[in-house]
Write a structure and sequence with these properties.
The protein has two domains: 1-34; 36-69. The protein is 80% helix and 0% strand. It has helices spanning 2-33, 39-48, 55-67.
Length: 69
Amino acid sequence: MLLDILQIFIGVIIGAVLGFFISKAYMMKYLKKNPPINEEMIKALMMQMGRKPSQKQINQMMKSMEKYQ
């Protein structure tokens, strides 16, 4: 009885740990393949605000975005 409960408890913990690492690896792969924002999006946003961004400004924005990811 106690052994059965212990096996179930250990199985749940192992499943949670494996699920965490598998989902973390999947999300990292997904975000690397589909970044949340890219240079074209930054350029479009700045153009909508009425600014013509230079490449230097775009690069600065990309560096600041990567810093928080």
